[in-house]
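Input/output pair, single chain:
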Amino acid sequence: MSSEARADATDAETAAPAAEPDPRPPQPMAVDAAALKALAHPLRLRMYDLLADGGPATASQLAQQVGESSGTTSYHLRVLASHGFIEDAPDRGNRRERWWRTRPGGYTLQGSTLLDDPSNDPALEVIADRAWRTSATQLRTWFASATRWDARWLDATANATMRIQATPEQLAALRDEVWEVLERHRVRLTTADAAEEAAAGGTAHVTDGATDDARRVVVQFHAFPLGEPPEASP
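Output:
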């Protein structure tokens, strides 16, 4: 028996207890300037969206979707992973095939901080442009295909616009409360998925809400002031 595989009674008695799993849901990763500039690449943004929308995938699968070689997608996936945007998909892949997924909890851009450095502006513009184009494409696709979906899905969706008067502080409070609701449902659905996988003997590969009746769902929430910004005080 090798020394690495052997543990005597003394080792077992003095070993530190295993860390308890963190009960809190994954929090969004704060993006710094280096990560921002790494993300602001059209192909990386597209692959991130594909992983976020479609769930875990390999470099070869993504290559087929974006029309690039698997070597190219592998490189860009490693860059995304090195900055924490994506990670290995648990219980998937083998020595010949690596599966990737987006980081649980996603990421957040603190604009007020990143805008302090003008060199960040081009990267922020690329990411903002991609974000609104992705949102617009998703909405356009849904509206074009809505009549082909089951009536239950039509009744479950929402397309609402509300205009209110609010201060920056009130708008932030509204945002935080809505985010808490979204997080609560995301955690509940993810927990249900984990229980279903365990019941299947740990062999089922599931994504959020992955039952026979479930589909990948996107929730879009936009909140911003209307009109032109007020003149800065002298």
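The chain has two domains: 24-149, 166-224. Residues 168-199 form the longest helix (32 residues).
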